[in-house]
């Protein structure tokens, strides 16, 4: 059963193009407090969103029974950040509250969404409204920056926002992650294209663009941020970062790095002194994903009851038919890691956008999106940590409904889980909402059989053949991944399909890329069947159709 709960709030925001393949999503609706309740025994799906807006990029945080949902609402070429809170593990949500104080400033898309963290609530404070911290990419400055805002009353109001990082230093910032530890101190990591005063341009290894840096900062009691410190440089510039704080105050940061030969592998750094110093970045796994562009898909991390850090990330698996796989590794010291372990998915070529959380029993829950038939689905699998550092994977679940689902997220509550994703209705002009699903767990933190049956992949009918649509793509080639059979194109607007966008496109015949090089201008046909798409009839300004 799907309960539609639209929040009647007047707001202006940007209606942005959403492409639900899981390869790219561009930036972008709950109800008054008398909204309907979700019955956790049947795990119904709720819909949060402002009417007449494109609602997308949800993110969740939870502490005890409190759940905070944050998302973007885009309408009339303005995008804003909204939050709604629940005090009963997502059974009911209050009305939406705009977080950002400058109307229309949000600049987000699926891989670079807003972020939210809540200060832990324990003991007698567990029923009190939590302190909430929201961060987001903002274009209010002359360059893309990052801002944060706090709520001290459980999300009823938000204080004026503040900048993360020095806005006087030129350079785009984004792909942030945020954590609040048991010490109630906020900490953030992000990617930063700053050029420090006196630094010449084009100083990266390839000499073709300014390098991206991994930055870190701590917040103070007044909601401002201390001076940022640089943790790494020349990192992969468009994959989300991940940050977490251990019970003892240790800080962990994961990100996608660039190793010699343009290998895009996951790195990890740790601070044992609450952020004053960090270890040199360590390579989590030698995946050897050689790519001249950006995978646009970063790592996720979570800590179990023993403060073992678990990392899940996507990477390319070489073979006769190269495909993306999701992999897991863990670490106890932030320096050495278990060998990577593949997490089985539906087996399609591109499971994407993994997000990980730890439940109250110390087990892990992983969500991601993947194509089933011709529809993108939000998937879930519980992972039980083993003494070896590996995990034992539980049953595979489909948590989304009949619509397309991308960029799922998940959080753990006192008695279960809450998942959310961008829900796209193809029958209504690709209208998007934020779908949210409370999922109860039994005493052993497993999904009850009656709930699991509603999320079984065998219960989800594979779609009948979707109509084939074709669009003309014109643009400039940014990068090629011949092994992965993809080409990244900075494309012109496509009437009736999407606006101007730089994104990656797969090809089914690798020979289509034989005569294509970076900087070429190409004309090609985008073939779209449901949520699947690829390029055909590629021709360049210097050659004939391939």
Kindly describe this structure:
This protein has 2 domains: 2-459, Neuraminidase (6 Propeller); 468-540, Copper binding periplasmic protein CusF (OB fold (Dihydrolipoamide Acetyltransferase, E2P)), CATH 2.40.50.320. The strands form 8 sheets. The chain has a 5-stranded mixed sheet with strand order 1-2-29-28-27, with no helix packed on it. Strands 32-31-30-33-34 form a 5-stranded antiparallel sheet, with no helix packed on it. Residues 1-42, 202-208 and 459-464 have low confidence and may be disordered. It is mostly beta strands and 546 residues long. Strand 19 and strand 20 (309-317) form a beta hairpin. The N and C termini lie far apart (47 Å). The chain is globular and about 60 Å long. It is 1% helix and 44% strand. It has 1 helix and 34 strands.
Structure keywords:
546 residues, mainly beta, Neuraminidase, OB fold (Dihydrolipoamide Acetyltransferase, E2P), 5-stranded mixed beta sheet, 1 helix, globular, disordered N terminus
Q: Can I get a quick summary?
A:
With 546 residues, the protein is mainly beta. The chain has one helix at residues 449-454, and strands at 2-4, 45-48, 54-63, 66-75, 78-86, 97-98, 115-118, 132-138, 145-151, 162-164, 173-180, 186-192, 213-218, 229-233, 242-245, 251-259, 263-271, 282-283, 300-303, 309-317, 323-331, 341-343, 352-358, 364-372, 375-385, 391-398, 404-412, 416-425, 431-440, 468-481, 486-491, 501-506, 521-529, 532-540. The strands form eight sheets. A five-stranded mixed sheet has the order 1-2-29-28-27, with no helix packed on it.
């Amino acid at each position: 059963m799907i309960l539609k709960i639209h929040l009647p709030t007047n707001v202006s925001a940007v209606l942005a193009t959403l492409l639900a393949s899981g390869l790219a999503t561009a930036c972008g609706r709950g109800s008054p407090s008398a909204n309907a309740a979700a019955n956790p025994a049947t795990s119904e799906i709720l819909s949060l969103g402002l009417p007449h807006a494109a609602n997308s990029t949800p993110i969740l945080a939870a502490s005890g029974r409190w759940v905070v949902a944050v998302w973007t609402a885009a309408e009339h070429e303005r995008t804003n950040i909204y939050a709604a809170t629940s005090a009963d593990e997502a059974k009911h949500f209050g009305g939406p509250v705009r977080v950002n104080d400058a109307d229309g400033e949000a600049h987000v898309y699926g891989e670079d969404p807003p972020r939210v963290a809540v200060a832990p609530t324990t003991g007698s404070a567990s029923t009190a409204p939590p302190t909430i911290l929201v961060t987001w990419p903002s274009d209010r400055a002359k360059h893309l920056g990052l801002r944060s805002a706090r709520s001290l009353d459980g999300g009823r109001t938000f204080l004026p926002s503040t900048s993360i990082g020095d806005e006087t230093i030129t350079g785009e910032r984004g792909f942030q992650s945020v954590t609040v530890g048991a010490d109630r101190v906020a900490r953030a990591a992000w990617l930063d294209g700053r050029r420090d005063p006196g630094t010449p341009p084009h100083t990266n290894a390839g000499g073709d663009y300014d390098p991206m840096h991994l930055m870190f900062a701590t917040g103070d009691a007044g909601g401002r941020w201390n001076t940022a410190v640089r943790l790494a440089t020349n990192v992969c510039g468009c994959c989300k970062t991940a940050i977490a704080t251990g019970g003892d105050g240790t800080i962990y940061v994961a990100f996608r790095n660039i190793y010699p030969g343009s290998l895009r592998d996951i790195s990890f750094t740790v601070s044992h002194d609450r952020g004053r110093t960090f270890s040199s970045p360590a390579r989590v796994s030698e995946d050897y994903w050689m790519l001249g562009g950006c995978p646009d898909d970063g790592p996720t991390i979570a800590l179990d009851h023993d403060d073992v850090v678990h990392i899940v990330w996507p990477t390319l698996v070489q073979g006769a038919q190269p495909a993306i796989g999701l992999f897991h590794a863990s670490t106890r010291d932030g320096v050495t890691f278990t060998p990577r372990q593949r997490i089985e998915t539906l087996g399609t070529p591109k499971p994407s956008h993994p997000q990980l959380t730890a439940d109250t029993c110390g087990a892990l829950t992983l969500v991601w999106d993947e194509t089933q038939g011709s529809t993108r689905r939000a998937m879930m699998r519980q992972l039980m940590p083993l003494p070896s550092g590996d995990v034992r994977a539980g049953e595979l679940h489909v948590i989304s409904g009949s619509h397309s689902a991308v960029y799922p997220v998940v959080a753990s509550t006192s008695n279960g889980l809450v998942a959310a994703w961008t829900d796209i209705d193809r029958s209504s002009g690709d209208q998007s909402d934020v779908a949210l699903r409370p999922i109860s767990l039994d005493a052993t933190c497993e999904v009850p059989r009656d709930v699991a049956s509603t999320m079984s992949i065998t219960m989800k009918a594979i779609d009948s053949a979707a109509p084939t649509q074709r669009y003309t793509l014109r643009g400039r080639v940014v990068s090629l991944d011949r092994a992965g059979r993809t080409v990244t194109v900075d494309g012109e607007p496509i009437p009736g399909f999407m606006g101007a966008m730089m994104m990656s496109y797969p090809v089914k015949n690798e020979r289509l890329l034989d005569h294509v090089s970076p900087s070429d201008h190409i004309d090609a046909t985008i073939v779209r069947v449901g949520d699947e798409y690829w390029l055909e009839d590629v021709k360049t300004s210097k050659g004939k159709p391939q």
